[in-house]
Protein backbone atom coordinates (compact mmCIF):
# COMPACT_ATOMS: atom_id res chain seq x y z
CA UNK A 1 0.00 0.00 0.00
CA UNK A 2 2.85 2.37 0.88
CA UNK A 3 4.56 1.60 -2.43
CA UNK A 4 1.31 2.30 -4.33
CA UNK A 5 0.94 5.67 -2.58
CA UNK A 6 4.53 6.58 -3.42
CA UNK A 7 3.96 5.69 -7.07
CA UNK A 8 0.75 7.74 -7.23
CA UNK A 9 2.47 10.64 -5.52
CA UNK A 10 5.35 10.53 -8.00
CA UNK A 11 2.91 10.42 -10.93
CA UNK A 12 1.08 13.47 -9.58
CA UNK A 13 4.36 15.34 -9.11
CA UNK A 14 5.48 14.56 -12.65
CA UNK A 15 2.12 15.62 -14.03
CA UNK A 16 2.41 18.95 -12.18
CA UNK A 17 5.95 19.48 -13.47
CA UNK A 18 4.76 18.94 -17.04
CA UNK A 19 2.41 21.90 -16.55
CA UNK A 20 5.16 24.27 -15.42
CA UNK A 21 7.13 26.54 -17.75
CA UNK A 22 9.61 29.28 -16.92
CA UNK A 23 9.38 32.62 -18.77
CA UNK A 24 11.45 35.76 -18.35
CA UNK A 25 9.06 36.86 -15.61
CA UNK A 26 9.18 33.60 -13.70
CA UNK A 27 7.57 30.18 -13.47
CA UNK A 28 3.98 29.47 -14.51
CA UNK A 29 1.72 26.56 -13.65
CA UNK A 30 -0.82 25.85 -16.38
CA UNK A 31 -3.98 23.81 -16.69
CA UNK A 32 -4.91 20.85 -18.85
CA UNK A 33 -7.89 21.48 -21.15
CA UNK A 34 -9.53 19.39 -23.83
CA UNK A 35 -10.28 20.43 -27.40
CA UNK A 36 -13.75 19.76 -28.75
CA UNK A 37 -12.68 16.29 -29.88
CA UNK A 38 -11.66 15.37 -26.34
CA UNK A 39 -7.88 15.64 -26.79
CA UNK A 40 -5.68 17.24 -24.12
CA UNK A 41 -3.71 20.47 -24.48
CA UNK A 42 -2.11 22.82 -21.97
CA UNK A 43 -3.34 26.31 -21.16
CA UNK A 44 -1.16 28.94 -19.50
CA UNK A 45 -3.45 31.86 -18.76
CA UNK A 46 -3.30 35.37 -17.30
CA UNK A 47 0.39 35.70 -18.11
CA UNK A 48 1.49 39.32 -17.52
CA UNK A 49 3.35 40.45 -20.64
CA UNK A 50 4.01 43.93 -19.21
CA UNK A 51 3.90 45.82 -15.96
CA UNK A 52 0.30 46.94 -15.24
CA UNK A 53 -0.15 50.45 -16.76
CA UNK A 54 -1.66 51.94 -13.63
CA UNK A 55 -1.20 55.21 -11.75
CA UNK A 56 1.71 57.18 -13.24
CA UNK A 57 1.97 54.56 -16.03
CA UNK A 58 -1.60 55.22 -17.26
CA UNK A 59 -1.61 56.42 -20.91
CA UNK A 60 2.11 55.61 -21.24
CA UNK A 61 3.96 52.98 -23.24
CA UNK A 62 4.12 49.58 -21.57
CA UNK A 63 7.07 48.66 -19.37
CA UNK A 64 8.67 45.19 -18.94
CA UNK A 65 7.04 43.04 -16.28
CA UNK A 66 8.81 42.73 -12.95
CA UNK A 67 9.80 39.11 -12.20
CA UNK A 68 7.79 37.26 -9.55
CA UNK A 69 8.84 34.78 -6.90
CA UNK A 70 7.79 31.15 -6.87
CA UNK A 71 5.32 29.59 -9.30
CA UNK A 72 2.52 31.82 -10.61
CA UNK A 73 -0.92 30.26 -11.01
CA UNK A 74 -1.69 30.37 -14.73
CA UNK A 75 -4.85 28.27 -14.62
CA UNK A 76 -7.34 31.17 -14.43
CA UNK A 77 -8.56 33.11 -17.47
CA UNK A 78 -7.18 36.58 -18.15
CA UNK A 79 -8.97 39.70 -16.84
CA UNK A 80 -10.81 41.66 -19.51
CA UNK A 81 -9.97 45.28 -20.29
CA UNK A 82 -12.84 47.59 -19.37
CA UNK A 83 -15.55 47.76 -22.04
CA UNK A 84 -19.24 47.06 -22.49
CA UNK A 85 -20.49 43.59 -23.37
CA UNK A 86 -24.12 43.29 -24.46
CA UNK A 87 -24.70 46.72 -23.00
CA UNK A 88 -23.19 45.86 -19.61
CA UNK A 89 -19.95 47.35 -18.29
CA UNK A 90 -17.28 44.75 -17.58
CA UNK A 91 -13.52 44.53 -17.13
CA UNK A 92 -10.73 46.35 -15.31
CA UNK A 93 -7.78 48.64 -16.04
CA UNK A 94 -5.12 46.08 -15.06
CA UNK A 95 -5.59 43.90 -18.13
CA UNK A 96 -2.41 43.49 -20.22
CA UNK A 97 -2.27 39.71 -19.95
CA UNK A 98 -2.10 36.84 -22.41
CA UNK A 99 -3.07 33.19 -22.72
CA UNK A 100 -0.79 30.63 -24.37
CA UNK A 101 -2.05 27.21 -25.47
CA UNK A 102 0.20 24.33 -26.48
CA UNK A 103 0.10 20.55 -26.80
CA UNK A 104 3.69 20.09 -25.68
CA UNK A 105 6.03 22.72 -24.18
CA UNK A 106 9.03 20.47 -24.84
CA UNK A 107 8.63 19.08 -28.38
CA UNK A 108 11.45 17.51 -30.35
CA UNK A 109 10.88 20.24 -32.95
CA UNK A 110 9.51 23.70 -32.15
CA UNK A 111 5.94 24.28 -33.37
CA UNK A 112 4.46 27.00 -35.55
CA UNK A 113 2.93 29.90 -33.63
CA UNK A 114 -0.36 31.70 -34.21
CA UNK A 115 -1.08 35.00 -32.41
CA UNK A 116 -4.67 36.27 -32.42
CA UNK A 117 -5.50 40.01 -32.24
CA UNK A 118 -9.04 40.32 -30.98
CA UNK A 119 -11.89 42.20 -32.58
CA UNK A 120 -14.01 45.01 -31.12
CA UNK A 121 -13.43 48.29 -32.93
CA UNK A 122 -10.54 49.16 -30.55
CA UNK A 123 -13.08 49.91 -27.79
CA UNK A 124 -14.57 46.55 -26.75
CA UNK A 125 -13.84 42.84 -26.86
CA UNK A 126 -11.48 40.38 -25.23
CA UNK A 127 -9.46 37.23 -25.89
CA UNK A 128 -10.87 35.50 -22.81
CA UNK A 129 -11.65 31.79 -23.00
CA UNK A 130 -15.41 32.36 -22.93
CA UNK A 131 -15.22 34.35 -26.19
CA UNK A 132 -12.02 33.20 -27.91
CA UNK A 133 -12.00 29.62 -26.68
CA UNK A 134 -9.03 27.64 -28.08
CA UNK A 135 -10.99 24.39 -28.21
CA UNK A 136 -11.49 24.39 -32.00
CA UNK A 137 -8.12 25.51 -33.29
CA UNK A 138 -6.26 23.27 -30.84
CA UNK A 139 -7.31 20.14 -32.74
CA UNK A 140 -4.18 21.02 -34.71
CA UNK A 141 -0.63 21.03 -33.35
CA UNK A 142 0.23 24.72 -33.16
CA UNK A 143 1.07 27.08 -30.31
CA UNK A 144 -1.73 29.64 -29.95
CA UNK A 145 -1.33 33.02 -28.25
CA UNK A 146 -4.23 35.34 -27.40
CA UNK A 147 -4.03 38.52 -25.37
CA UNK A 148 -5.83 41.68 -24.35
CA UNK A 149 -4.69 45.23 -25.05
CA UNK A 150 -5.87 48.60 -23.75
CA UNK A 151 -9.18 49.72 -25.24
CA UNK A 152 -11.18 52.92 -25.57
CA UNK A 153 -9.84 56.06 -23.92
CA UNK A 154 -7.31 54.11 -21.86
CA UNK A 155 -5.76 52.79 -25.05
CA UNK A 156 -6.51 55.36 -27.75
CA UNK A 157 -6.88 58.80 -26.15
CA UNK A 158 -5.08 61.64 -27.92
CA UNK A 159 -3.94 64.98 -26.50
CA UNK A 160 -1.36 67.15 -28.21
CA UNK A 161 1.24 68.70 -25.92
CA UNK A 162 0.94 65.98 -23.30
CA UNK A 163 2.87 62.79 -22.68
CA UNK A 164 -0.25 60.69 -23.34
CA UNK A 165 1.04 58.18 -25.90
CA UNK A 166 -0.93 57.97 -29.15
CA UNK A 167 -2.29 54.64 -30.37
CA UNK A 168 -1.31 52.86 -27.17
CA UNK A 169 -3.62 49.92 -27.83
CA UNK A 170 -1.84 48.83 -31.02
CA UNK A 171 1.53 49.56 -29.42
CA UNK A 172 0.50 47.13 -26.69
CA UNK A 173 0.13 44.58 -29.49
CA UNK A 174 3.70 45.30 -30.61
CA UNK A 175 4.86 44.83 -27.03
CA UNK A 176 3.07 41.47 -26.85
CA UNK A 177 4.62 40.34 -30.15
CA UNK A 178 8.06 41.18 -28.77
CA UNK A 179 7.26 39.12 -25.67
CA UNK A 180 6.36 36.23 -27.98
CA UNK A 181 9.73 36.52 -29.71
CA UNK A 182 11.58 36.30 -26.38
CA UNK A 183 9.48 33.65 -24.64
CA UNK A 184 7.44 31.45 -26.96
CA UNK A 185 10.12 28.72 -27.19
CA UNK A 186 9.37 28.00 -23.53
CA UNK A 187 5.95 26.77 -24.66
CA UNK A 188 7.30 24.77 -27.58
CA UNK A 189 6.79 27.54 -30.14
CA UNK A 190 9.11 28.66 -32.93
CA UNK A 191 9.73 32.41 -32.84
CA UNK A 192 10.84 32.24 -36.47
CA UNK A 193 7.43 31.00 -37.62
CA UNK A 194 4.79 33.37 -36.25
CA UNK A 195 1.46 34.07 -37.96
CA UNK A 196 -0.67 36.92 -36.68
CA UNK A 197 -4.38 36.92 -37.41
CA UNK A 198 -7.32 39.04 -36.36
CA UNK A 199 -10.91 39.97 -37.09
CA UNK A 200 -12.43 43.43 -37.71
CA UNK A 201 -10.26 45.84 -35.66
CA UNK A 202 -7.90 42.90 -35.21
CA UNK A 203 -7.79 42.43 -38.99
CA UNK A 204 -7.07 46.13 -39.43
CA UNK A 205 -4.29 45.81 -36.86
CA UNK A 206 -2.74 42.85 -38.71
CA UNK A 207 -2.59 44.92 -41.89
CA UNK A 208 -1.14 47.90 -40.01
CA UNK A 209 1.54 45.73 -38.40
CA UNK A 210 2.53 44.70 -41.92
CA UNK A 211 3.38 48.33 -42.72
CA UNK A 212 4.36 49.84 -39.37
CA UNK A 213 8.13 50.05 -38.79
CA UNK A 214 7.53 49.24 -35.10
CA UNK A 215 6.43 45.71 -36.05
CA UNK A 216 9.18 44.86 -38.52
CA UNK A 217 10.42 41.30 -38.19
CA UNK A 218 8.07 40.29 -35.37
CA UNK A 219 5.98 37.87 -37.50
CA UNK A 220 6.10 36.05 -40.81
CA UNK A 221 2.54 35.61 -42.13
CA UNK A 222 -0.73 37.50 -41.72
CA UNK A 223 -4.48 36.81 -41.86
CA UNK A 224 -7.03 39.65 -41.86
CA UNK A 225 -10.69 38.80 -41.31
CA UNK A 226 -13.12 41.58 -42.22
CA UNK A 227 -10.77 44.49 -41.76
CA UNK A 228 -7.79 46.18 -43.43
CA UNK A 229 -6.02 49.52 -43.16
CA UNK A 230 -8.33 51.07 -45.78
CA UNK A 231 -11.60 50.68 -43.86
CA UNK A 232 -13.33 54.05 -43.42
CA UNK A 233 -13.57 53.58 -39.64
CA UNK A 234 -9.84 53.18 -38.91
CA UNK A 235 -8.79 56.81 -38.35
CA UNK A 236 -9.95 58.89 -35.40
CA UNK A 237 -10.30 62.41 -34.07
CA UNK A 238 -7.38 64.25 -32.54
CA UNK A 239 -7.31 65.88 -29.11
CA UNK A 240 -10.08 63.72 -27.68
CA UNK A 241 -8.49 64.34 -24.28
CA UNK A 242 -9.96 67.85 -24.19
CA UNK A 243 -13.57 66.67 -24.37
CA UNK A 244 -12.90 63.80 -21.98
CA UNK A 245 -11.38 66.20 -19.45
CA UNK A 246 -14.35 68.55 -19.70
CA UNK A 247 -16.80 65.71 -19.05
CA UNK A 248 -14.79 64.79 -15.96
CA UNK A 249 -14.97 68.35 -14.62
CA UNK A 250 -11.31 69.22 -15.28
CA UNK A 251 -11.41 72.99 -15.81
CA UNK A 252 -8.24 73.49 -17.81
CA UNK A 253 -7.07 73.45 -21.41
CA UNK A 254 -3.44 72.97 -20.41
CA UNK A 255 -2.40 69.49 -21.67
CA UNK A 256 0.05 68.98 -18.79
CA UNK A 257 -2.58 69.76 -16.18
CA UNK A 258 -5.13 67.58 -17.95
CA UNK A 259 -2.82 64.55 -18.12
CA UNK A 260 -1.99 64.87 -14.41
CA UNK A 261 -5.65 65.14 -13.46
CA UNK A 262 -6.66 62.24 -15.70
CA UNK A 263 -4.18 59.99 -13.94
CA UNK A 264 -5.88 60.77 -10.63
CA UNK A 265 -9.36 59.80 -11.82
CA UNK A 266 -10.77 56.30 -11.21
CA UNK A 267 -10.61 54.30 -14.43
CA UNK A 268 -14.35 53.69 -14.19
CA UNK A 269 -14.96 57.47 -14.30
CA UNK A 270 -12.80 57.74 -17.41
CA UNK A 271 -14.76 54.93 -19.00
CA UNK A 272 -18.10 56.56 -18.22
CA UNK A 273 -16.92 59.87 -19.67
CA UNK A 274 -15.76 58.02 -22.78
CA UNK A 275 -19.20 56.48 -23.21
CA UNK A 276 -20.78 59.95 -23.06
CA UNK A 277 -18.60 61.02 -26.01
CA UNK A 278 -20.31 58.67 -28.51
CA UNK A 279 -17.30 56.38 -28.64
CA UNK A 280 -18.54 54.30 -31.58
CA UNK A 281 -16.85 53.43 -34.88
CA UNK A 282 -18.61 54.76 -37.97
CA UNK A 283 -17.81 55.16 -41.68
CA UNK A 284 -19.18 58.65 -42.31
CA UNK A 285 -16.62 60.58 -40.25
CA UNK A 286 -13.55 60.35 -38.08
CA UNK A 287 -14.51 59.07 -34.64
CA UNK A 288 -13.26 59.39 -31.09
CA UNK A 289 -11.65 55.97 -30.75
CA UNK A 290 -9.80 55.61 -34.03
CA UNK A 291 -6.06 55.72 -34.62
CA UNK A 292 -4.25 58.99 -35.27
CA UNK A 293 -1.34 59.63 -37.63
CA UNK A 294 1.77 60.30 -35.55
CA UNK A 295 4.29 61.15 -38.26
CA UNK A 296 7.86 59.83 -38.51
CA UNK A 297 9.49 58.62 -35.31
CA UNK A 298 11.22 55.58 -33.88
CA UNK A 299 8.48 54.96 -31.31
CA UNK A 300 5.61 55.88 -33.67
CA UNK A 301 3.23 53.23 -34.98
CA UNK A 302 1.26 55.13 -37.65
CA UNK A 303 3.99 57.18 -39.28
CA UNK A 304 1.80 58.35 -42.18
CA UNK A 305 -1.73 57.99 -43.50
CA UNK A 306 -2.78 54.46 -44.48
CA UNK A 307 -2.60 55.14 -48.22
CA UNK A 308 1.01 56.28 -47.98
CA UNK A 309 2.08 53.52 -45.58
CA UNK A 310 0.67 50.87 -47.92
CA UNK A 311 2.96 52.10 -50.70
CA UNK A 312 6.21 51.16 -48.98
CA UNK A 313 5.59 48.28 -46.55
CA UNK A 314 8.43 46.40 -44.85
CA UNK A 315 6.56 43.10 -45.33
CA UNK A 316 6.65 42.81 -49.16
CA UNK A 317 6.40 39.14 -50.16
CA UNK A 318 4.77 37.99 -46.91
CA UNK A 319 1.99 35.40 -47.40
CA UNK A 320 -1.36 36.94 -46.56
CA UNK A 321 -4.94 35.62 -46.26
CA UNK A 322 -7.58 38.31 -46.54
CA UNK A 323 -11.36 38.16 -46.74
CA UNK A 324 -14.81 39.03 -45.46
CA UNK A 325 -18.25 37.59 -44.65
CA UNK A 326 -21.05 38.01 -47.16
CA UNK A 327 -23.45 39.70 -44.69
CA UNK A 328 -21.10 41.69 -42.48
CA UNK A 329 -23.58 44.53 -41.92
CA UNK A 330 -26.19 42.36 -40.21
CA UNK A 331 -24.74 43.66 -36.95
CA UNK A 332 -26.26 47.10 -37.74
CA UNK A 333 -29.75 45.62 -37.74
CA UNK A 334 -28.94 43.77 -34.52
CA UNK A 335 -27.77 47.00 -32.86
CA UNK A 336 -31.01 48.72 -33.81
CA UNK A 337 -33.21 45.88 -32.64
CA UNK A 338 -31.40 45.14 -29.37
CA UNK A 339 -30.05 48.53 -28.33
CA UNK A 340 -32.19 51.09 -30.13
CA UNK A 341 -29.67 52.51 -32.63
CA UNK A 342 -32.03 53.50 -35.50
CA UNK A 343 -30.82 53.44 -39.08
CA UNK A 344 -31.18 56.51 -41.29
CA UNK A 345 -32.63 55.20 -44.55
CA UNK A 346 -31.70 58.42 -46.35
CA UNK A 347 -28.17 56.90 -46.44
CA UNK A 348 -26.72 60.17 -45.11
CA UNK A 349 -24.71 58.27 -42.48
CA UNK A 350 -23.62 55.32 -44.60
CA UNK A 351 -21.20 56.92 -47.06
CA UNK A 352 -17.45 56.80 -46.42
CA UNK A 353 -15.87 60.06 -45.27
CA UNK A 354 -12.84 59.17 -47.43
CA UNK A 355 -15.08 59.78 -50.44
CA UNK A 356 -17.37 62.54 -49.15
CA UNK A 357 -14.89 64.58 -47.08
CA UNK A 358 -17.70 66.51 -45.43
CA UNK A 359 -19.00 68.05 -48.67
CA UNK A 360 -22.85 67.93 -48.65
CA UNK A 361 -23.01 68.45 -52.42
CA UNK A 362 -20.81 65.43 -53.07
CA UNK A 363 -22.78 63.44 -50.48
CA UNK A 364 -26.06 64.09 -52.30
CA UNK A 365 -24.54 63.23 -55.69
CA UNK A 366 -23.06 60.01 -54.36
CA UNK A 367 -26.33 58.97 -52.77
CA UNK A 368 -28.07 59.43 -56.14
CA UNK A 369 -25.50 57.15 -57.77
CA UNK A 370 -25.82 54.61 -54.97
CA UNK A 371 -29.60 54.56 -55.29
CA UNK A 372 -29.27 53.61 -58.95
CA UNK A 373 -26.61 50.96 -58.43
CA UNK A 374 -28.00 49.21 -55.34
CA UNK A 375 -31.73 50.04 -55.17
CA UNK A 376 -33.05 50.63 -58.68
CA UNK A 377 -33.19 54.40 -58.17
CA UNK A 378 -35.10 54.42 -54.88
CA UNK A 379 -34.11 54.84 -51.26
CA UNK A 380 -34.38 51.73 -49.10
CA UNK A 381 -37.23 51.62 -46.61
CA UNK A 382 -36.20 48.60 -44.50
CA UNK A 383 -33.39 46.18 -43.89
CA UNK A 384 -32.99 43.68 -46.71
CA UNK A 385 -30.21 42.06 -48.69
CA UNK A 386 -29.61 45.15 -50.85
CA UNK A 387 -29.16 47.50 -47.91
CA UNK A 388 -26.98 45.00 -46.05
CA UNK A 389 -24.86 44.57 -49.17
CA UNK A 390 -24.34 48.32 -49.49
CA UNK A 391 -23.17 48.67 -45.89
CA UNK A 392 -21.03 45.54 -46.17
CA UNK A 393 -19.38 46.88 -49.33
CA UNK A 394 -18.57 50.31 -47.86
CA UNK A 395 -17.11 49.22 -44.53
CA UNK A 396 -15.61 45.84 -45.37
CA UNK A 397 -15.74 44.35 -48.87
CA UNK A 398 -14.58 47.32 -50.94
CA UNK A 399 -11.57 48.11 -48.70
CA UNK A 400 -10.54 44.44 -48.91
CA UNK A 401 -10.71 44.40 -52.72
CA UNK A 402 -8.84 47.69 -52.93
CA UNK A 403 -6.01 46.32 -50.82
CA UNK A 404 -5.90 43.17 -52.93
CA UNK A 405 -5.60 45.31 -56.05
CA UNK A 406 -2.76 47.31 -54.49
CA UNK A 407 -0.76 44.37 -53.17
CA UNK A 408 -1.50 41.35 -55.38
CA UNK A 409 1.58 41.91 -57.54
CA UNK A 410 4.01 41.94 -54.61
CA UNK A 411 2.34 39.64 -52.03
CA UNK A 412 1.17 36.01 -52.26
CA UNK A 413 -2.42 36.78 -51.29
CA UNK A 414 -5.33 34.40 -50.74
CA UNK A 415 -8.81 35.93 -50.89
CA UNK A 416 -11.90 34.35 -49.29
CA UNK A 417 -15.61 35.02 -48.88
CA UNK A 418 -17.18 33.32 -45.86
CA UNK A 419 -20.83 32.31 -46.38
CA UNK A 420 -21.22 29.29 -44.09
CA UNK A 421 -24.58 29.24 -42.30
CA UNK A 422 -25.08 26.74 -39.46
CA UNK A 423 -26.03 26.70 -35.79
CA UNK A 424 -22.56 28.09 -35.03
CA UNK A 425 -23.40 31.45 -36.67
CA UNK A 426 -23.88 33.04 -33.28
CA UNK A 427 -24.25 36.64 -34.41
CA UNK A 428 -26.51 36.23 -37.43
CA UNK A 429 -28.77 33.98 -35.35
CA UNK A 430 -28.83 36.39 -32.39
CA UNK A 431 -32.35 37.66 -33.18
CA UNK A 432 -35.19 36.31 -35.39
CA UNK A 433 -35.07 39.39 -37.62
CA UNK A 434 -31.57 38.47 -38.85
CA UNK A 435 -31.67 34.68 -38.51
CA UNK A 436 -33.79 34.63 -41.70
CA UNK A 437 -30.88 35.79 -43.87
CA UNK A 438 -28.69 33.27 -45.66
CA UNK A 439 -24.99 33.63 -44.97
CA UNK A 440 -22.66 34.93 -42.30
CA UNK A 441 -22.77 38.12 -40.26
CA UNK A 442 -19.81 40.07 -38.94
CA UNK A 443 -17.74 37.83 -36.59
CA UNK A 444 -19.66 34.64 -37.44
CA UNK A 445 -16.57 32.99 -38.95
CA UNK A 446 -14.81 33.23 -35.58
CA UNK A 447 -17.24 30.66 -34.16
CA UNK A 448 -15.61 28.03 -36.40
CA UNK A 449 -12.02 28.82 -35.39
CA UNK A 450 -12.74 29.46 -31.71
CA UNK A 451 -15.37 28.24 -29.29
CA UNK A 452 -17.77 30.87 -27.97
CA UNK A 453 -19.43 30.00 -24.67
CA UNK A 454 -22.85 30.98 -26.08
CA UNK A 455 -22.64 28.22 -28.69
CA UNK A 456 -23.64 24.63 -28.00
CA UNK A 457 -21.10 21.83 -28.13
CA UNK A 458 -20.31 20.51 -31.60
CA UNK A 459 -21.64 17.07 -32.48
CA UNK A 460 -18.89 15.05 -34.12
CA UNK A 461 -19.70 14.25 -37.74
CA UNK A 462 -22.15 17.16 -38.01
CA UNK A 463 -22.06 19.93 -40.59
CA UNK A 464 -20.62 22.24 -37.95
CA UNK A 465 -17.85 19.74 -37.20
CA UNK A 466 -16.92 19.47 -40.87
CA UNK A 467 -16.75 23.24 -41.40
CA UNK A 468 -14.63 23.68 -38.25
CA UNK A 469 -12.23 20.98 -39.42
CA UNK A 470 -11.85 22.54 -42.86
CA UNK A 471 -11.35 26.09 -41.65
CA UNK A 472 -8.94 25.15 -38.87
CA UNK A 473 -6.98 22.95 -41.26
CA UNK A 474 -6.58 25.72 -43.82
CA UNK A 475 -5.68 28.38 -41.26
CA UNK A 476 -3.11 26.19 -39.53
CA UNK A 477 -1.77 24.95 -42.88
CA UNK A 478 -1.14 28.57 -43.73
CA UNK A 479 0.69 29.08 -40.43
CA UNK A 480 2.87 26.05 -41.16
CA UNK A 481 3.49 26.31 -44.89
CA UNK A 482 2.45 29.78 -46.04
CA UNK A 483 -0.31 28.17 -48.11
CA UNK A 484 -3.81 27.23 -46.91
CA UNK A 485 -3.95 24.14 -49.17
CA UNK A 486 -0.30 23.27 -49.76
CA UNK A 487 -0.65 19.88 -51.42
CA UNK A 488 -3.10 20.67 -54.18
CA UNK A 489 -6.43 18.86 -54.32
CA UNK A 490 -7.41 17.23 -51.04
CA UNK A 491 -10.58 15.24 -50.43
CA UNK A 492 -10.84 16.59 -46.86
CA UNK A 493 -10.91 20.09 -48.36
CA UNK A 494 -13.42 19.27 -51.13
CA UNK A 495 -10.66 18.89 -53.75
CA UNK A 496 -10.45 22.61 -54.33
CA UNK A 497 -7.32 24.54 -55.22
CA UNK A 498 -7.18 27.91 -53.44
CA UNK A 499 -5.39 30.02 -56.01
CA UNK A 500 -3.57 33.25 -55.20
CA UNK A 501 -5.11 36.41 -56.56
CA UNK A 502 -3.29 38.14 -59.39
CA UNK A 503 -3.60 41.31 -61.41
CA UNK A 504 -5.79 39.61 -64.02
CA UNK A 505 -8.07 37.39 -61.95
CA UNK A 506 -9.70 38.01 -58.58
CA UNK A 507 -9.41 34.38 -57.49
CA UNK A 508 -11.50 33.74 -54.40
CA UNK A 509 -12.39 30.77 -52.21
CA UNK A 510 -16.00 30.70 -51.01
CA UNK A 511 -16.15 29.07 -47.58
CA UNK A 512 -19.64 27.60 -47.54
CA UNK A 513 -21.03 25.03 -45.11
CA UNK A 514 -21.90 22.67 -47.95
CA UNK A 515 -18.85 22.90 -50.19
CA UNK A 516 -15.68 24.92 -50.59
CA UNK A 517 -15.77 26.61 -54.00
CA UNK A 518 -12.96 28.27 -55.89
CA UNK A 519 -14.26 31.04 -58.10
CA UNK A 520 -13.39 34.34 -59.73
CA UNK A 521 -15.05 37.13 -57.80
CA UNK A 522 -17.36 39.53 -59.60
CA UNK A 523 -15.98 42.96 -58.70
CA UNK A 524 -18.47 45.22 -60.49
CA UNK A 525 -19.31 46.74 -57.09
CA UNK A 526 -15.64 47.69 -56.59
CA UNK A 527 -15.49 49.17 -60.08
CA UNK A 528 -18.54 51.28 -59.19
CA UNK A 529 -16.84 52.69 -56.09
CA UNK A 530 -13.59 53.16 -57.98
CA UNK A 531 -15.43 55.30 -60.52
CA UNK A 532 -16.79 57.54 -57.75
CA UNK A 533 -13.38 57.97 -56.15
CA UNK A 534 -11.93 58.82 -59.54
CA UNK A 535 -14.74 61.27 -60.28
CA UNK A 536 -14.12 63.21 -57.07
CA UNK A 537 -10.33 62.75 -57.15
CA UNK A 538 -10.28 60.79 -53.90
CA UNK A 539 -7.38 58.53 -53.02
CA UNK A 540 -8.26 54.92 -52.28
Automatic annotation (TrEMBL):
One Pfam family, please name it. Answer: COesterase
- Give the enzyme's EC designation: 3.1.1.-
Q: What is this protein called?
A: Carboxylic ester hydrolase
Q: Which family does it belong to?
A: Belongs to the type-B carboxylesterase/lipase family.
Domain of life from the UniProt record? Eukaryota
Recorded name of the encoding gene: LOC108560418
Residue ranges annotated for the Carboxylesterase type B domain, each copy included? 18-519
Signal sequence bounds: 1-16
Write out the entry's keywords from A to Z. Disulfide bond, Glycoprotein, Hydrolase, Serine esterase, Signal
Q: Which SUPFAM superfamilies match?
A: alpha/beta-Hydrolases (SSF53474)
Database matches in InterPro entries: AB_hydrolase_fold, CarbesteraseB, Carboxylesterase_B_AS
Q: Does the keyword S-adenosyl-L-methionine apply?
A: no
Recorded source organism is: Nicrophorus vespilloides (Boreal carrion beetle)
Amino acid sequence: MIILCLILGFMTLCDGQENIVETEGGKLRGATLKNYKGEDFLAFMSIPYAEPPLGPLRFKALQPVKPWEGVRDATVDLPKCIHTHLGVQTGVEDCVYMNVYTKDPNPSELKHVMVYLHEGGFYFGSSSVDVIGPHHIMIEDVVLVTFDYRLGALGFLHLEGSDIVENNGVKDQVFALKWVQRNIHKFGGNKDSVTIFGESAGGVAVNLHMVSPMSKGLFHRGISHSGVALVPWMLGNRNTGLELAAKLGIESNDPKIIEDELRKKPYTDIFQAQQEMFWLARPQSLWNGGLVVEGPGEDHFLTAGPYDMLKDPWSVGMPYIIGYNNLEAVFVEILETMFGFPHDYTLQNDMSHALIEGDPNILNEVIEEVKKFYFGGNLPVKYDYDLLQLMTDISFRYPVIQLVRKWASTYPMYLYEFTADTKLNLFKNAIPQTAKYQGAAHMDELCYIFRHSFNADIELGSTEDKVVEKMVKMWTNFAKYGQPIPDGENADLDNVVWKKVNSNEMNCLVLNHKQLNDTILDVKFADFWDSLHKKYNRQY
